[in-house]
Amino acid sequence: MTRNLPHRPRRMIAAAVLSTFAAFLPAVASALDADRADVRAFIADLAAEHGFDKDYLRTTLGQTQTHQAILDAISRPAERTRPWHEYREIFVTPKRIDAGVAFLAEHADRLARIAERTGVPAEIITAIVGVETFYGRITGRYRVIDALATLGFDYPPRATFFRGQLEELFVLAREEQLELTELVGSYAGAMGPPQFIPSSYRAYAVDGDGDGRRDLLGNWDDILMSVANYFVRNGWQAGEPVTVRSDTDQDFAVPTGENSLKLSETVGSLAKRGLHFDSPLDAAAPAQLISLEGKTGHEYWIGFHNFYVITRYNRSTMYALAVFQLADALAAARTDAPAVAEKNPGAKRPRARS
Fold first, then answer.
1. What are the residue boundaries of the structural domains of the chain, listed by start?
2. What integer pLDDT is reported at residue 259 of this predicted model?
3. For 338, what's the count of Cα atoms within 13 Å in the CB-facing half-sphere?
4. How confident is the model over 136-156, as pLDDT tens digits?
5. What are the angstrom distances between the C-alpha of 203 and each of 200, 255, 319?
6. How far apart are the C-alpha atoms of 208 and 315, rounded to whole Å?
7. Do 151 and 158 form a contact (C-beta atoms < 8 A)?
8. Which residues are catalytic?
9. What is the predicted pLDDT for the residue at 194?
10. For position 78, what pLDDT does the model report?
11. How far, in Å, CA of 351 to CA of 344, rounded?
12. Residues 82-106+240-354, CATH architecture
C-alpha cells in the first residue's frame, strides 16, 4: 500500500526524481561557448591566416552545437571494438553486393571512363562508396560544423587534428561556395558519398564533368573521379594485386586492430617466414602480413602496395580488407565467378616466388 505524503505533492516528487535521473545522463547537445579561451584563439588564428571577419566567425561558431553522441561514437569505432569476422559482416553482405552490382550497372559508362583514365578498377571505386555510405544512401546525420567543433574543442585526444579540419571547413566552404552551416556528414565531419573530410576534399576532389565545380555531395562524375584521384595521388599501381589469402603452419596472431599499416616485409621475406601464398610479384616487392580473427580461427592475408594505398583512405587494415572483399565480390557477381575471398579459404596455395 502506498503511503500518503501530504507535505510533498506527487507531481513535485516526480519532478525531483526526473531531475536527479537527468543529472546522471550525458547532455544530448549544448551550444558551443564562443567566449571560451580556446575558441577565441581559434577565431583569432583563422582571421589572421585566412582573412575571415572575426564577427562572422564568432557568430557562426556561437550557433554550433556540441554533441555527446559524437564523443561517444569516436571513442568506440568498429575497427577497434569488433573482431574481423564481425566487422566483415557489416560490409560484405548479399544486400550490399546486390546494391553494388546495380550501382555498377547504373554508372557503367562513367566508371569505365574513370577506370581507363586512372587505372583504378571500377569495382574498387564502387566498393569505397559502398563501404562508406552504402552507395550514397547513408551519408551522416550531423552538421559538419557541429561535428568538427565538438571534436575540435571537446575531444582532447585529437583536438588539434579536428580543429585543423574545422579551419579547412571554413576555407573549403568559401572556395567551393558551399553553405557552411547546411553541410551534413558523419560524426567525424566526413561529407558526401565518398566521405571526404574537409582537408581531403580540398586536396583530392576533382571536377569530373568539366562544369567548373568540385561537387562531392551530389555529382557522381565528381564523386567517383575524386575517389580514383585519391588512389592515384597515393600511388595506386594499375594492374598490380591488392592482397591474397595465405596459409601457414605457424601462429602469427595479433590482437584485433593492432596490425601494422606499414609495408615492413617483402614477398620473399614472408615466404621465408613460413607463409604460403601465391603472388605475381617478385621476391623484393614490398608486402605486409595481416593477421585477423576469423569465424573459425585466425586468417592470414598478405597485403601488397595497393593494399597500403587503400589504408590511406582509412587507416585500418580491416577497412582495407573489407573494401577489397566487397570489390572482389562485385567483380564475381558481375561475371558469375566465385569471389577470391570465398574460394577454398582453407586450401593450401602455391608458395610465393622467392
1. 30-63+141-182, 82-106+240-354
2. 87
3. 6
4. 999 999 999 999 999 999 999
5. 5, 34, 22
6. 26
7. yes
8. 132
9. 98
10. 65
11. 16
12. Orthogonal Bundle (1.10)
